[in-house]
Structure to design on (192 residues):
């Protein structure tokens, strides 16, 4: 693992040449490397492809920031983000889910099946009624898991709603139906 850390730290050094000066001291570099390895392990960054995603994001970041990212931020960059596969961010997905969950089931309009399944797993009632500070973290975890599944090819579905069409009856129609019912009753009496 140390060899891999050295390889990717060298890549970061080439991306952030002026920012790397903050680690010229051997003890600081050793501490950064230790934190880098710990962040990679804790965040389950298990492939070179994931590390390469982090390096690509570091290149983008270096255009506006000359300093090397903290190890935990680099580890976050290594994970595929919902936006990478055409899904909204966790916060935007949460807002959609909580808004739709607050509606009657027959009028909800889910824009994305991953958001729908996440909302169902978290709980429509909780999304509609709990404070964001209490439920967002849980939503974020479930959404991240579902995004991983989507990335692996799992197909999510939004079930078709069983919407019952309600056609209002006018007073004239109701009066006509009552009159016909009364006529039928009178006919039945006359036939007896």
């Amino acid at each position: 693992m140390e060899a891999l850390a050295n390889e990717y730290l060298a890549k970061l050094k080439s991306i952030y040449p002026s920012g790397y000066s903050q680690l010229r001291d051997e003890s600081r570099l050793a501490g950064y490397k230790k934190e880098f390895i710990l962040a990679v392990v804790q965040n389950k960054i298990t492939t070179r492809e994931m590390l390469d995603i982090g390096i690509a994001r570091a290149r983008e970041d270096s255009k506006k920031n000359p300093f090397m990212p903290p190890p935990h931020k680099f580890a976050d960059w290594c994970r595929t983000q919902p936006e990478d596969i055409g899904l909204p961010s966790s916060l935007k997905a949460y807002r959609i889910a909580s808004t739709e969950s607050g509606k009657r089931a027959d009028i909800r309009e889910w824009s994305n099946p991953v958001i729908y399944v996440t909302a169902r797993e978290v709980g429509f009632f909780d999304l509609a009624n709990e404070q964001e500070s209490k439920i967002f973290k849980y939503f974020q975890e479930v959404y991240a898991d579902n995004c991983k599944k989507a990335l692996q090819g799992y197909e999510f579905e939004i079930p078709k709603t069983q919407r019952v069409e309600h056609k209002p009856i006018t007073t004239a129609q109701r009066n006509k139906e009552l009159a016909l019912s009364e006529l039928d009753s009178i006919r039945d009496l006359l036939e007896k």
